């Protein structure tokens, strides 16, 4: 019998540019289009160009206003995000594992999901007061229902065969949660975290605009009253850039690590 020679599979050709260079060219093209649009605008105050916006941002950085306001907003975002993930995750897990708990909490989740964020913010300020506790609580209440729904679906999708294995080996409740349930829930938790972060910081800006004396939302309100479009763009782009960096450097690697076991199965 003649030997069968297996030809090695050809490796894919390397791309001429890496993803980093592609992203850099994309950002450069966006700035170039922004510059061209600003050149054709009727007034530089109405639509400032990149140089004017970046110059204003640098001025705000050197005088300390931009770092101060961003740090305050980031603290509120982190606090509200953690509260929403903790409360929504725990309640979602309980609802996904217990039909009775789901029957109790589902109507509340439906109401919370359909309640306008502005109503939640205004009522929280009225009942709790114009303080940081009310700001964080309002954002957490607005975000927790989406975390609840996502984690509940993950808890419902847990593999029953793995549950039977845990019973056969008589694993303790904590080891069953840690070794069997948590890895299966991680894709749902990471998905709710990524979407939750982008929603949370937007709600925080609205909360600050309505009732706080500091933060990015407060600064945007001042710029709006003074018709300072360059200030609005400078603060908006700076904070969006920081949130993008957090997602790229923290949330995306965490999501890949949390779901790595699926690629090994």
Task: Characterise this structure.
This protein has 265 residues and is an all-alpha fold. The chain has helices spanning 19-40, 50-62, 65-97, 99-114, 117-128, 132-156, 160-168, 173-211, 216-225, 229-258, 260-264. α3 (65-97) crosses α9 (216-225) and α5 packs across α6. The two termini are 36 Å apart.
Topology readout:
Blueprint: H1 19-40, H2 50-62, H3 65-97, H4 99-114, H5 117-128, H6 132-156, H7 160-168, H8 173-211, H9 216-225, H10 229-258, H11 260-264
Helix pairs in contact: 2-10, 3-4, 3-6, 3-8, 3-9, 4-6, 5-6, 5-8, 6-8, 8-9, 8-10, 9-10
How would you briefly describe this protein structure?
This protein has helices at residues 19-40, 50-62, 65-97, 99-114, 117-128, 132-156, 160-168, 173-211, 216-225, 229-258, 260-264. By secondary structure, it is mostly helical. It has one domain: MetI-like fold, CATH 1.10.3720.10.
